[in-house]
Amino acid sequence: MKKQILISLILGSAFFLSADISAKCFAFSKAKDVSVCVDGNDNKARGKAKDACKKNTGKDCGNVTGYSGSKCNSGKVNCVDSSGKVQKKISVD
Asked: Which sequence spans correspond to the domains of the chain?
């Protein structure tokens, strides 16, 4: 019984940890034509995305308004990587 509980705890922990380290592509309130994809989905990742957006556009992109998943295809939006460079397609999963 103890072994089953231990295994359940380990598997549950792995699930929650993997959710925290997943990568995301973020959208912004003042730069609706930009989507920045970075590793992570926490406040540090959001800050990194805002910095990359500002580097790309040369101005404040506003607040992160949400995320568009873990992929970006250029078209209606410019796909920007964590360094601020535009890419045609980004997949961060």
From this structure: 21-91
